[in-house]
Amino acid sequence: MAVTKKKAAPKKSNTVKLKFDTSWNYAPAPESKSAATIHKQYDLFINGEWQKPSGKKYFDTINPATEEKLSEVAMANEADTNKAVTAARNAYEKVWKKMPAKERGKYIFRIARMIQEKARELAVIETLDGGKPIRESRDFDVPTAANHFFYYAGWADKLEYAFPNRQASPLGVAGQIIPWNFPLLMAAWKIAPALATGNTVVLKPAETTPLTALKLAEIIQEADLPPGVVNILTGAGETGASIVNHPGIDKIAFTGSTEVGKLIQRAIAGTNKKATLELGGKAANIIFEDAPIDQAVEGVINGIFFNQGHVCCAGSRLYVQESIAKQVIRKLKDRIETLIVGDPIDKNTDIGAINSKQQLDTIHKYLNIGKKEGAEMYESSCPLPRKGYFCRPTIFTNVAQSSRIAQEEIFGPVLAVLTFRTDDEVIEKANNSPYGLSAGVWTDKGSKIFNMTKRMRAGVVWANTFNKFDPSSPFGGYKESGFGREGGLHGLMPYIHLTHQS
Ligand code: NAI
Ligand code: MG
């Protein structure tokens, strides 16, 4: 009897690639890079001037969409931190603290206006240095940063109205450490309320995205802000740690990973330093069966794929009511197929570059974890540029509540979809997370919105919308998402001492 060799069964895979329809390609519409001046090299901005780093070291910052070097920036060491803190202390004692509040306000207004004047240049630099689509840096990051300065400029001489019958006094020198996902906006969130309340600042941008903070230093110099009121030190984790550990710092404001947030808390324990920490998140977006489905799907897409999912409040977990799950998942898959991934400087691009090789590796690690855990993975079939760090928008279905892709922050364009039947069940599941930064609820019923917002352990709960920001609204987390609030009246509190007026 002839033995026929059995054909090996095709390897079962739980990855499904969706089909990309190439008949709808848009013609390229790149924003002009000529609007941006990027110097070859940047020094440290200390005491109102550009100073060489004591260690004479510089590091490259690249464009993650092309892997090309954009510039090199100074690496600040402890001696530089010392200089910056001394400059900030002198400026605080001799000038800024004593200045009438309405005069301080004028400087902050001036910075706000200059950000508006240079909006286009800032947007282009933000996109080149960080990889986010120009549409986002142009329409969201830069205008929102200017609005923060405008908003807090307005408070500078009105603190007695913000805190009636109490006297608000500044803390001193604030050490501020910011991440790479919203570089200019995070600088604005940190600097504006600190200055409005009479503090001076030593700020460190993230090592992969220092350029808009350095452009802001140029603006600050041009605005004639007294020397030393804002100092900007570039560098990596060690530079950040030297700021955290410096005895001349009165307050730390940090946005970044939960891991570093914990290190900072340990480092300042037993000192008089105040702190606000804005850390990671794993936001639940919840769609009830009575929700306007198309609007909800669009909101979910915006919630997770906005800025490549490099958003601490990204809606990375979707809970959809069982009765509409099939329909919602179908619409989500169709929608990701139409998202344009590619050159961030192109105005048509929806999803730009992942910020760094390291972050792309982290995302890939989680894609593998998701597959190994048995979830079903759908990724868009869009082509990816050959150079640069890119990732297709990806959806996991059949995800267990306990799986790592439903529990841990991925910080990439990856959505985990889970289902639920009742209100109580979804509240239990949504709150079952080490994080508690934000959440979203989609329903037609006002009473359901109130019930959910009351019971959800998240700093911000959006209803029938997602990722909406306004300088007058406070933002901040519960649990491992950190503590303290930024934005709004609440955002003044971490920068002041309050005493009762006699
Ligand atoms: P990271 O927490 O290391 O970086 C944030 C900032 O902290 C940077 O300016 C960095 O130079 C500084 N830093 C690092 N080590 C420090 C230390 N020991 N002391 C003081 N400052 C220090 O974040 P990383 O490694 O870039 O990203 C890792 C993960 O963190 C991401 O995958 C994401 O999950 C999360 N993340 C969350 C952010 C948020 O907005 N909440 C922002 C950035 C990252
Ligand atoms: Mg860069």
Give a verbal description of the structure:
It is a single chain. Strand 16 (394-397), helix 13 (404-407) and strand 17 form a beta-alpha-beta unit. The protein starts with 14 loop residues before the first strand and ends with a strand. The protein is built from 15 helices and 23 strands. Helix content is 38%, strand content 19%. The model is unreliable at 1-5 (pLDDT under 50). Strands 1-15-16-17-14-13-19-20 form an eight-stranded mixed β-sheet, with helices on both faces. The protein has helices at 78-96, 101-117, 119-130, 134-155, 159-162, 183-196, 211-222, 237-245, 258-268, 293-305, 322-338, 357-372, 404-407, 423-431, 446-455, and strands spanning 15-17, 41-42, 44-46, 49-51, 58-63, 68-74, 166-170, 173-177, 200-204, 230-232, 251-255, 274-278, 284-287, 317-321, 376-379, 394-397, 414-420, 435-436, 438-442, 460-463, 478-479, 482-483, 496-500. The protein has 502 residues and is of the alpha/beta class. Magnesium ion (MG) binds at residues 61-62, 129, 208-209.
Features:
single chain, 502 residues, alpha/beta, eight-stranded mixed sheet, six-stranded mixed sheet, 15 helices, 19% strand, globular, binds 1,4-dihydronicotinamide adenine dinucleotide, binds magnesium ion
